[in-house]
């Protein structure tokens, strides 16, 4: 029988049953490899989603290899490159990177620095607060109230975090919004001192009485 099979099929003496078994085993092995590959892909996607969305909101829909996910500084750099000029200014002000902030200001003429001003105050960077204040000063009468509200917000953020150096600048004679707008402004910053007291910053909270006296005097 083997010799007849060999002559009929061009000299191939392989058992047909063995060939079928070999093909079946190969199919099973390929299916197992595919399942393993799919499982690895699922794990990578889950790791990517949890890692990127946890810290970098701009990367939450981006999928990276595990090797990149392990390099947090690389993800941080990619996240920075995706920032808008306004977002970059906020980040530079928040982290006290004056050189980076100046580069952003000089490169993007229409960059909105109002939120960056508040972030700098909340982070205690008095030098950046002083530098950005010139962009907060109103040039038109209808801009005064918005500027006052922004400075009051910066004062509240600084007081809440206990940044006395920022408070001293924002309440100094260099910031003349208080004299030009009067009682509304002074009343607007009283909650900042209350917040300082609630957070244990008694050196700042001690100025609350002085500010209340000023608000009543105007």
Explained architecture:
The chain is mainly α and 218 residues long. It folds into 2 domains: 1-82, no CATH class; 113-218, Serine Threonine Protein Phosphatase 5, Tetratricopeptide repeat, CATH 1.25.40. It has 14 helices and no strands. The protein has helices at residues 2-8, 16-55, 66-69, 72-81, 85-94, 98-107, 114-123, 126-136, 144-161, 164-170, 177-181, 183-198, 202-205, 208-217. Helix 7 (114-123) packs antiparallel against helix 8. 22% of the residues are buried. Residues 1-9 and 42-54 have low confidence and may be disordered.
Q: Using the 3D structure, state the CATH architecture of the largest domain.
A: Alpha Horseshoe
Q: What is the string of helix and strand elements?
A: HHHHHHHHHHHHHH
Q: Runs with pLDDT <50, length 5+?
A: 1-9, 42-54
- Beta percentage is under 5%
Structural class, please? mainly alpha
| Cα-based radius of gyration, to the nearest Å | 33 Å
Task: Please outline what is shown here.
About 75% of the residues lie in helices and about 0% in strands. The chain has 14 helices and no strands. InterPro entries: Ankyrin_rpt-contain_sf, SecEffector_AnkRepeat.
List the helices and strands and how they pair.
Blueprint: H1 2-8, H2 16-55, H3 66-69, H4 72-81, H5 85-94, H6 98-107, H7 114-123, H8 126-136, H9 144-161, H10 164-170, H11 177-181, H12 183-198, H13 202-205, H14 208-217
Helix pairs in contact: 5-6, 5-7, 7-8, 7-9, 8-10, 9-10, 9-12, 12-14
């Amino acid at each position: 029988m083997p010799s007849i099979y060999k002559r009929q099929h061009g000299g191939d003496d392989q058992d047909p049953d063995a060939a079928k078994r070999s093909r079946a085993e190969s199919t099973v092995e390929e299916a197992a490899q595919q399942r393993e590959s799919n499982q690895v892909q699922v794990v990578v996607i889950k790791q990517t989603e949890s890692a990127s969305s946890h810290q970098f909101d701009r990367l939450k829909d981006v999928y990276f290899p595990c090797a990149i996910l392990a390099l947090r500084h690389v993800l941080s750099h990619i996240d920075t490159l995706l920032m808008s000029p306004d977002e970059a200014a906020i980040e530079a002000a928040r982290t006290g990177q004056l050189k980076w902030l100046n580069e952003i200001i000089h490169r993007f003429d229409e960059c909105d620095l109002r939120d960056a001003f508040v972030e700098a105050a909340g982070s205690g960077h008095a030098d950046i607060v002083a530098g950005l204040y010139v962009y907060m000063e109103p040039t038109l009468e209808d801009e005064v109230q918005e500027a006052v509200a922004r400075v009051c917000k910066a004062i509240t953020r600084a007081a809440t975090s206990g940044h006395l150096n920022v408070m001293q600048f924002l309440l100094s004679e260099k910031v003349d919004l208080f004299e030009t707008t009067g009682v509304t402004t002074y009343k607007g910053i009283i909650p900042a001192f209350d917040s300082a007291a609630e957070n244990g910053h008694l050196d700042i909270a001690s100025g609350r009485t002085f500010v209340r006296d000023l608000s009543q005097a105007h």
